[in-house]
Sulfoxide reductase catalytic subunit YedY
Amino acid sequence: MSDARKDRAGLASPHRRRLLGQGAALVGGALAGSTARAVAADDANAPPSIPDWMRAPGADVGSEPYGTPSRYERRLIRNIPKNLPQYISASSRTPLQDLDGIITPNGLFYERHHGGIPEIDPSQHRLMIHGLVETPLILSMDEIRRFPSESQIYFLECSGNPGFEAMSGRTASDLVGLVSCSEWTGVRLRTVLEEAGLKSEARWVVAEGADAAAMTRSLPIAKCLDDAMLVYSQNGERLRPQQGYPLRVLLPGYEGNMSVKWLRRLNVTAEPAYSREETSKYTDLMPDGTARQFTFVMEAKSIITRPSGTQRIARGFNEITGLAWSGHGRIRTVEVSVDDGRSWTEAQLQAPVLTRALTRFRLPWTWDGTPTTILSRATDETGYVQPYFADLTAIRGTKSFYHNNAIIPWRIAASGEVTNGFVKA
Amino acid sequence: MSDARKDRAGLASPHRRRLLGQGAALVGGALAGSTARAVAADDANAPPSIPDWMRAPGADVGSEPYGTPSRYERRLIRNIPKNLPQYISASSRTPLQDLDGIITPNGLFYERHHGGIPEIDPSQHRLMIHGLVETPLILSMDEIRRFPSESQIYFLECSGNPGFEAMSGRTASDLVGLVSCSEWTGVRLRTVLEEAGLKSEARWVVAEGADAAAMTRSLPIAKCLDDAMLVYSQNGERLRPQQGYPLRVLLPGYEGNMSVKWLRRLNVTAEPAYSREETSKYTDLMPDGTARQFTFVMEAKSIITRPSGTQRIARGFNEITGLAWSGHGRIRTVEVSVDDGRSWTEAQLQAPVLTRALTRFRLPWTWDGTPTTILSRATDETGYVQPYFADLTAIRGTKSFYHNNAIIPWRIAASGEVTNGFVKA
């Protein structure tokens, strides 16, 4: 037996990894669940047959002045709920299970609107800054773009991702698709507030959107003077209409509805506005009937996106990969369990690990075909550990809706089929 | 005079920055070149007038299952040359002067094709790995996606960006728009080569594309075993057809044509292929008539994107911002001159500064209205400093075409108009 043959049998060369070969012979047969074949010695120097797309010139350069995905990827769209009574106050989700890396392409960023998507003429748009300031200001978009700028990669997440009662989704997107991540460019909010000059009594900044809902949230002044931004660009280009074109505020790590879109007004105040969206909504109902208000930060969370619900895996090598994030800062570790939580292994985090950004984690795994449940658990730089759903409900009851950051279980059947572990098999 | 009044006149509060106020009074008049106004005391608590887009509900959630830019941004497209004799072997450029941050949205990534853009069915696509390997392989896309993955933010740049004779463009895109930057996901090429098993004589990997040009380049084995990747995703979603859907090789920091798109074949060899694209093209003609071959690395370069050609600036505060990159690793410093190279100031680099990625730089500047020329100059982590064009031609003559990384001058007229400093005023 030659060295190479030994190697193929897994007997030699510990440095040679046989990833696709695990659980299946590479030579002379198909991989389990795949069409791979090794090439026989006599045709090893012949190229594979010439496909049709090499036989004639392809499409012209510039045939798409603004490019779109391949027509073979047309299924990769936002996850839009069916049969809602209305769609102007609703949400669509990012298809997390079909995405790689940490950047969400702008066309697939999640949506949550309260009065539909306005179509705003940027030359007519103005931002007013008033209230407890020395010099009230009205700024055009050209003026906002003249301030010193910065670019940061941050996640944005709806506070109801998922709601406490919404744990029965089939896919990763159904469960936590109300999170996305972009490189945002704009001006530090602090810079603009300093231009207006804050009065000493300033404690809150009431942000108002130029949508039909006049979406209004009260932003605490400390956050406004820390990392909050006024954002006009997302992944290089101008904000998309669904993300607040031409201007939004962005509060890194805070619940998404506070990053008011289509921003037209910042009213600096001593007290919060107690707006509709911070009284009747976006509060956390506790078992005793009281409600927690102003629960701003999205706490550490993670989800395995591959393998995940509706996917099917083959025996042998499978990389487990997913996303973790925390509104409190950087992800410190992600642990993965392939035995329903009995043991945990630390996953590899893709560098650079950025504060308040999605973090991609990965763990190599060889599945032997035994049914099991896989889980991921994030710990952030404050030491906070993502809880089980039971731990959350033990404190908050089941009438709560927002700020559900529970560990997500994926059940794997003997067939390799992956299903939501919250749903009884 | 109150403290606030003093401040507005620039007499008090050194901690208060008056960015938009520089060179113009904020209260009681418009800013130079802008429509900004401070709000008079009696209407400071009235919101700005209600725009039309707040008076009725906007578009539904999910009205765009795959989102597109605002219709007010329809001018923001690829920079496509006019009146070429043919477009199947040509290029389009990224509109750098209108983008922010470092991520290029997929719709605006630059193009360079040699036989048009093939439309490939991923279920039919195969990658063959053969030649000096122990086990030749044919892999489907599903199999390639089973290997361990990684995600990296890298720039990609055409080696003719711009050609030596092509320095007369009007915009930043005309000059160096053949560079873009994405988060790429795929498998380390080394992993797949190790799966096949390299023979000891392996020195080159000849990559072939599945386009009508069968684009072919020889990749040095050291790079293939270092950071080279097989890439299937870009900014989260699958590669766009223009960037090699469903699979390309990516050689970080090397000239773009080596990152062969629509990848179908890797032939491991002892010698390079001396293909058309590494003999008749993509070589550097020297003054003595010889040609440098296999000049792989794109050396340190930078360009100011704002202000840049065809833009117009106002007196007062202007942020100077642009992009720098190096195929040799990280950018160490970017210096900016606002006096045609007589003096230089170090710009601020946006963190994180990543290896072989675009790096955003910024410098605050107050323009007093005097005509001048502004420049940027990048230094990479090896200590290499971006040269003047005259320094390049002193060594390489004027018959060279590729690997032009000259310092780009922007001339600013008394009117604030910005034009290409290479073109006589």
Summary: DSSP finds six helices and 24 strands in chain A.
